[in-house]
Write a structure and sequence with these properties.
mainly alpha, extended, about 0% strand, about 725 residues, about 60% helix
Length: about 725
C-alpha cells in the first residue's frame, strides 16, 4: 500500500493524460471531480492549447503547400513534423506518402495552362523516380501501386489507360481529404501519452522474451541437425574409403592376387551400422559366394509396411436417412465423420475401399431423383451444415474416382456455382466449393460447362481485390482461372473483357504469394495467343512492364519472361480451325495422383460436448452395418506426366498436386525484396519454371494434373492417346 501512495499522484496523472488524449471528456470530468472529493492530488500538466495552435499552423502550411504544388516546402514540413518511425513502419502513412509523390509529379500536367514547363516537369518526374528507387521501394510488393512504377517511363501519362484515374477531377480533392484526416490524427498523436508508451514498452519486452525462447529452441534443433550432418558426412567419407579399397582390390585381382575372406569380412563390417557389426563379424560366413552382397542389399531393403486393416462397414440407408431428416447438429457430425473417413484413411486399399463403399451406396444421392436427398444439404439453413457438406464434396473431388462419381449428376455443377456466388464473404463454405470446382476442372466436359456459365468473369472480379482473400481461395481461384483460360472457349471469353483480365493477371504476377505464380504465368501466356488480347496488352505497355523483371531476375525467370514477351509480340493469327481442345469432351487424362490436402480438415467449428459421439466412434456405434465393402480394382489411369519445372504449366493441375510434384518451385521463386522491379507494373517473380522452350501454359487444379489441350507448338509433353 505504501508503494501505491508514494506514486499515487503520478499514476493518477497518467490516467488523466490518457483520458485527455483519447478525448473521454465526460470521463475526465467525472474522474477529476471524484479525485477532488477523495482528496487525491492530480499533477498539473502543461497546457495543450499552445500545442494545439502550433499543430493547426503546421497542418495549414502543409495543406497550402499541397494545393500550390510546392513540393520542396511540403516534404520539408512532412519530414520535420511526421516522425520517421511512423513514415517507415505505418502502412497507412507509406501509402499516403506514395500518392502525395504522385500528386506533385503530375501537378504541372493537371494545373498548367497550355504546355507545362519541360525543365520543371522533368525535375518533378526525376524526383518521383528517385523516390521509387529509395523510400518508395518499400511498397514494391503491394499490388495497388505496381502500375505507378512505370509512370516515370511513360511519355504521356495523361492518355495512358493505367493512369486514367489520376487525371480525373475527383482524384486530387479525395487525396486532400485523406491528407487532412491523416494530419489531424497524426499531429495530435505525436504527443503520445506516457501510459501508452509504458504499455508498448512492456509488450516489446514480452516479445523479446518470446523471441529469446524461440532462439534457444532453434539453436537446440540446429545442434541436432548438425550432429546428423556430421554422422552423414562420416558415413560418406567411410564409403569413399571402402570404395577406394575395393578398386585397389579389383586391380590386384587383375594381377592375379587373391582376396582373402578376412579382408572381405573387414570391408563388409565397415559398411554396416555399429549395431550390426559385432553380430556380422562372428556369425556370417564370408567364404560362401554371394553372402556379402546379399547382406549389403538386405541392409538397404525398405522396411515392409504393416498391413492396414479395412474400416468397418456402415449402414448407409440409415446414414442417408439421418442426413435428410436428422437435426442440423447430427447432420453436421455425420458429414464430418464421413469426411474424416476419407481424409484420415491410409492411401491405398483402405482409402479406395472407403470411397468405393460411398460410391456404390450412392452416399451423396448423385443418382437419386427424389426431391429430398442428401445434395439438398447444400441449401440448408444451417451455415455449419452447408460448410460441412461442401467439405465432404471437396474431399470427394480430391480423388479421381470421386470426381467421376460427382460428375454423373449434371445439376451438381450448377448448384455449386450458385453456392459459390451466393456466399458474400470468403467463408470456409466458399473455399470448399471453390476447391471442388477447381478439381472438377480436370474433367473436360465440366470445364466447358463452367466456361459457358461465365465463371471466368466471376473469378476475374473476385481476384481484383486479393487482400480480402484467404491463401486457399486465392490459390484455387487463380488455378481454376488458368485451367479455363487454356481452353479455346475460355480464351475467347477473356477476349470479351481483355483489359480487365490483363489488369488482374498483371497485378497477380506481383503478388507476394509465390504459390500462384505458375498459374498466373500459364494463364497470361495462354490468352496472349488471341490477337485482340495481344493488342490490348501492347496498349497497356505490357512489354515495358515485363522487361523490368529481366533486369533483376534469375536465369529461369528471365527465360520465362522472354517467352511471354515473344508471345506478346507474335503476329500469328488465331487459327479458327484448331478447336480440338473443345471437341474431345470425353477425354479426361486425369493423372494417377489423388491428393487429399490438409486444408480439408482445417478450422473445425464443430466440437462434441461431454457424452456426445463424433467421428469414427459415432459411425461405428450408431451406424455399423453388414459387409458392404465392394473391393474394386482401381482403374489404371494414365501414368503421371511430368514436365520440366523450367517451362510454364501446360496441363491442368491442382495446387496440392503441383506442390507435391514440383516441391522445388518455392525455392526457385526470387526473394520478395530482391526480385521486385522498381519501375514496373508487375512485381515479384514469374514462376521460375521456364526453360529454353515455350513458357508454361497449364490447366491447373491445386491438387491434381490432367491433360490440357493446347496448340501443338506449346505442348511440353507428347499427347497421351
Amino acid at each position: 500500500m505504501g508503494d501505491i501512495l508514494a506514486y499515487e499522484a503520478e499514476l493518477l496523472g497518467l490516467v488523466k493524460e490518457y483520458l485527455d488524449f483519447a478525448e473521454f471528456e465526460d470521463t475526465v470530468k467525472a474522474f477529476t471531480k471524484e479525485c477532488k472529493i477523495k482528496g487525491k492530488m492530480l499533477p498539473k500538466t502543461a497546457g495543450g492549447s499552445l500545442r494545439d495552435s502550433k499543430t493547426l499552423i503546421v497542418q495549414k502550411d502543409l495543406l497550402t503547400a499541397f494545393e500550390d504544388g510546392d513540393q520542396k516546402l511540403f516534404f520539408e514540413l512532412w519530414e520535420e513534423h511526421i516522425s520517421s518511425s511512423l513514415r517507415d513502419n505505418e502502412p497507412l502513412a507509406q501509402k499516403l506518402e506514395f500518392y502525395l509523390h504522385i500528386h506533385f509529379a503530375i501537378y504541372l500536367l493537371k494545373h498548367s495552362v497550355g504546355k507545362p514547363d519541360k525543365a520543371d516537369l522533368d525535375e518533378r518526374i526525376s524526383h518521383f523516380k528517385t523516390y521509387l528507387e529509395t523510400r518508395g521501394a518499400a511498397l514494391s510488393q503491394t499490388t495497388e501501386f505496381l502500375p505507378f512504377y512505370a509512370l516515370p517511363f511513360v511519355p504521356n501519362p495523361m492518355v495512358h489507360p493505367s493512369f486514367k484515374e489520376l487525371f480525373q477531377d475527383s482524384w486530387t480533392p479525395e487525396l486532400k481529404i485523406r491528407l487532412e484526416k491523416f494530419l489531424s490524427l497524426t499531429l495530435k498523436a505525436c504527443h503520445t501519452p506516457r501510459l501508452l508508451t509504458l504499455y508498448v514498452s512492456f509488450q516489446k519486452n514480452v516479445l523479446k522474451i518470446q523471441l529469446h525462447q524461440q532462439l534457444v529452441e532453434a539453436e537446440r534443433r540446429t545442434m541436432t541437425y548438425l550432429k546428423r550432418f556430421n554422422k552423414i558426412q562420416l558415413d560418406y567419407h567411410n564409403l569413399i574409403g571402402v570404395t577406394a579399397e575395393l578398386v585397389d582390390s579389383l586391380e590386384a585381382t587383375v594381377s592375379g592376387k587373391m582376396i582373402t575372406p578376412e579382408y572381405l569380412q573387414s570391408v563388409c563390417v565397415r559398411l554396416f551400422s555399429n549395431q550390426m557389426r559385432q553380430s556380422i563379424a562372428h556369425s556370417i560366413d564370408f567364404t560362401r559366394p554371394g553372402t556379402a552382397s546379399t547382406m549389403l542389399r538386405a541392409s538397404l531393403a525398405p522396411v515392409k509396411m504393416q498391413e492396414v486393416p479395412l474400416l468397418p462397414s456402415l449402414d448407409y440407408e440409415k446414414l442417408k436417412k439421418d442426413l435428410i431428416i436428422g437435426s442440423d447438429r447430427l447432420k453436421a457430425f455425420l458429414l464430418q465423420a464421413l469426411r474424416w473417413r476419407l481424409t484420415t484413411s491410409h492411401p491405398g486399399e483402405q482409402r479406395d475401399t472407403v470411397l468405393q463403399a460411398y460410391i456404390s451406396n450412392d452416399l451423396l444421392d448423385i443418382h437419386s431423383r427424389s426431391k429430398r436427398n442428401v445434395l439438398t444439404l447444400l441449401h440448408s439453413k444451417s451455415e455449419v451444415v452447408r460448410e460441412y457438406m461442401t467439405r465432404l464434396i471437396n474431399a470427394f473431388a480430391s480423388l479421381a474416382e470421386g470426381r467421376l462419381y460427382l460428375s454423373q449428376n449434371p445439376k451438381l455443377l450448377r448448384v455449386l456455382e450458385e453456392r459459390l456466388k451466393a456466399e458474400d464473404k470468403d467463408s470456409l463454405t466458399r473455399e470448399n466449393v471453390l476447391g471442388a470446382l477447381q478439381k472438377f476442372s480436370l474433367r473436360r466436359a465440366l470445364q466447358s460447362a463452367m466456361i459457358k456459365d461465365g465463371l471466368i468473369f466471376w473469378l476475374v472480379d473476385v481476384l481484383k481485390d486479393t487482400d480480402c482473400l484467404s491463401d486457399y481461395t486465392l490459390e484455387y481461384s487463380v488455378a481454376l482461372l488458368m485451367n479455363l483460360c487454356l481452353r479455346s472457349a475460355g480464351k475467347k471469353m477473356c477476349a470479351k473483357v481483355a483489359n480487365h483480365v490483363l489488369k488482374v493477371l498483371s497485378d497477380l504476377l506481383g503478388h507476394e504469394n509465390h504459390e500462384i505464380q505458375p498459374y498466373v504465368n500459364g494463364a497470361l501466356y495462354s490468352i496472349l495467343a488471341i490477337p485482340s488480347i495481344r493488342e490490348e496488352a501492347r496498349a497497356m505497355g505490357m512489354e515495358e512492364i515485363l522487361r523490368c523483371f529481366i533486369k533483376e531476375g534469375n536465369a529461369e525467370m528471365i527465360r520465362q519472361i522472354e517467352f511471354i514477351i515473344k508471345q506478346l509480340n507474335s503476329e500469328e493469327p488465331l487459327d479458327e480451325s484448331v478447336e480440338s481442345d473443345d471437341e474431345e469432351e470425353d477425354e479426361d487424362d486425369e493423372e494417377d495422383h489423388d491428393t487429399m490436402e490438409a486444408d480439408l480438415d482445417k478450422d473445425e467449428v464443430l466440437q462434441p460436448q461431454l457424452g456426445e459421439l463424433s467421428g469414427e466412434k459415432l459411425l461405428t456405434t450408431e451406424y455399423l452395418g453388414i459387409m458392404t465393402h465392394t473391393p474394386k480394382v482401381k482403374k489404371k489411369l494414365f501414368p503421371g506426366v511430368h514436365q520440366s519445372i523450367d517451362e510454364p504449366l501446360q496441363r491442368p493441375v491442382t495446387p496440392g498436386y503441383h506442390r507435391a510434384a514440383y516441391p522445388t518451385l518455392g525455392f526457385l521463386a526470387l526473394p520478395r525484396k530482391s526480385c521486385r522491379p522498381r519501375q514496373c507494373n508487375l512485381s515479384n517473380t514469374l514462376p521460375s519454371n521456364v526453360s529454353d522452350q515455350k513458357p508454361l501454359c497449364c490447366w491447373s487444379t491445386p491438387s491434381m494434373c490432367a491433360r490440357a489441350p493446347l496448340p501443338l507448338p506449346f505442348l511440353l509433353l507428347s499427347a497421351v492417346s
